[in-house]
Amino acid sequence: MNLAGKISKVLYGGDYNPEQWPREVWQEDMRLLRLAGIDIVTLNVFSWAALQPSENEYDFSTLDAIIETVSAVEGMKICLATGTATHPAWMARKYPEVLRVNIEGNKRKFGARQNSCPNSPVYRKYSALLARKLAERYGKLENLAAWHISNEYCSACYCENCEKAFRKWLMQKYKTIEALNAAWNTSFWGHTYYDWDDIVAPSFLSEEWPPGRTSCQIQSIDYRRFNSDSLLDCYLAEAGVLKEITPHVPVTTNMMATYWELDYRKWGKHMDFIAWDNYPAMDAPYTRTAMNHALMRGCGGGKPFALMEQTPSVTNWRPYNSLKRPGIMRLWSYQALAHGSDTVMFFQMRRSRGCCEKFHGAIIDHCGHENTRVFRETAALGAELKKLGDVFLDSRLESKAAVLFDWDNWWATHLSAGPTSDMNYPEEVFRFYNALARRNVSTDMVGVDTPLDSYKLLFAPVLYMVKPGFADKIKTFVRGGGVFVTGYFSGMADQNDLVTTEGYPGELRSLCGLWVEETDALLPGNYNNFVIKEGPLAGTWKADLLCDIIRPEGAETIARYESDFYAGTPALCRNNYGGGAVWYFGARPDAVLLDRFAALICGECNIEPVFPPHDGIEATRRIKDGREFVFVLNHNTVESQITIPFACRDLLTDKSFSPSERYALPAADVLVLDVT
Ligand code: GLA
Ligand code: ZN
């Protein structure tokens, strides 16, 4: 189930918190939201305190009034939050166990949000009960589009509830303490556990120390897995109740793309549709946002997702909160649609007056009227989305190229204790994704459990942890003609972070046709070079971060290191394997080499870009019932001359193009081309 079928146009709206305002303001809000073309509001995100003022008392009067007010607006849909992201103050007073203990080992007090222990029986009981009451009361609303559980689940708890639950989680996983001792390699530093009760949460009081270091990697990795599961269990407890009472209403929560604490690939399997909050830094490359969209889409199995939040203008929580320049909100909204969103939603409708979000952008500013740049831009986009209707809703992107992103691998590489502390897994993955995205090659972000049959090309940079069966899966993929690209810091460890004794890259060794004898970590700012004598990649290209010292075992050497004691040894290798090929980058390549490499490899794999590559011009393709929609976005700050390769019509302006027609796409402008 997802939103499709329930909607007839791109949903447009977002968080609305009228409880922060006197009721006189609500009617004016309705006038303004109508004017802006808003047709969905997310309500009740932080209302637990109001809904349950004491343990045995519930009061839905304000929410009733809010729902009545917004429902009076024709066509207004509701995304109803369960409000469980902040427990009420009385609960913290009466049941201190609902409060988290942080990684320093300090018991938190009431305050902030997402401050509830995920393993607190009291929190579990009352959050599920609130969800039940909401479902019973509002489940029959005709305009209820979706349930929104909690809000941005995040962070971790290290309290005694969690410690106990961790032991149970470990017992289920390892069965015996001996098996745990073996998997955790506890004979190191005399860590042998005699009893499950010896195991404590790996906080700064035990195995970990700032910034994010640990003396027992697998324990810390297992804690990440456990904590992600614990928060997921909170989600599932509420979702279960909602499903029981309103099986027809899709259920979701809002995610945050490359967010460290939560294994969203696991979460996505339990969500009716993916919803996520997109807050790119003003100077983030557009391809980085694209990767986040693709990652989120992938977590939902490729189905359309919801852009649940973005700011219409400005955030407040960065050190420097620059305004989105004119046209950028529109451009980034279309970018979400281009990558598979069926909604454009904001945080928030009206700007708060007090507390830490008072300077966060909103559609209605503090001045309270519509005569602002931000309102005008929002209303203009609202009108445009109305015009677009449902043409591309519920369509899919189809990709022959995929990039692997795996949370366990992120945890393991980040916590690894050597060879370099500059290893940033999402950014390493991004370098490779970027090279494909810049060429407008439709690219999916996949997990180790994603079927690979529909792909021709798989990039798996920094595939440090090779989970059971994954090496075989890649071998099958390559034997069948697939091309696999990997490299430095790959094939190092199993799912328990036990390092291979088969010679690096372990299970990938025969596939890559090489053995990595040693790995050199380069100091910041230092680099070696890839030297390539001939062919399409010929040149000298920067190699940094890590340099593997490679002994080929059948692989062909494409590049050699330029300097140091391993000068002249292989730096980039290619191995024929079955009907396919494997490429191994011994060191981190610079962007220019990666660009050339992406062009070469896509050519070899017969992967055509969706649209001719052009600096700063992004293009994606959504397909529905054989009908193709190509989104073309100009991320440049200047007009760009593009050549439209096919006959098509722009759905935004109704302008028709003939094949090879030149067009000057204004800065930040967008085309939505119907190519049928
Ligand atoms: C998150 C939250 C919102 C709000 C915004 C501000 O995405 O979900 O409640 O705090 O950040 O950017
Ligand atoms: Zn806890």
Q: Tags for this entry?
A:
globular; binds zinc ion; Rossmann fold; 29 strands; binds alpha-D-galactopyranose; alpha/beta; 3 domains; Immunoglobulin-like; eleven-stranded mixed β-sheet; 676 residues; TIM Barrel; nine-stranded parallel β-sheet
Describe this structure in words.
This protein has three domains: 320 residues, TIM Barrel (Alpha-Beta Barrel); 204 residues, 3-Layer(aba) Sandwich (Rossmann fold), CATH 3.40.50.880; 59 residues, Immunoglobulin-like (Sandwich), CATH 2.60.40.1180. The chain is 29% helix and 21% strand. The chain is built from 17 helices and 29 strands. Strands 12, 13, 14, 15, 16, 17, 18, 19, 20, 21 and 22 form an eleven-stranded mixed β-sheet that branches. A nine-stranded parallel β-sheet has the order 7-4-3-2-1-11-10-9-8. It starts with 10 loop residues before the first strand and ends with a strand. The mean pLDDT is 97. The protein binds alpha-D-galactopyranose and zinc ion. Alpha-D-galactopyranose (GLA) binds next to loops.
> Which regions contain 5 or more consecutive residues with pLDDT less than 50?
none
Described by strand count, sense and barrel closure, the largest sheet is:
11 strands, mixed
Domains (count): 3
Mean of residue pLDDT? Answer: 97
How far apart the termini lie comes to 28 Å
From the alpha-carbon coordinates, what is the Rg to the nearest angstrom?
Answer: 26 Å
CATH class value of the largest domain:
Alpha Beta
What ligand molecules are bound, each kind once?
alpha-D-galactopyranose, zinc ion
CATH homologous superfamily assignment of the largest domain: Glycosidases
Query: What characteristic shape results from the CA principal axes?
Result: globular
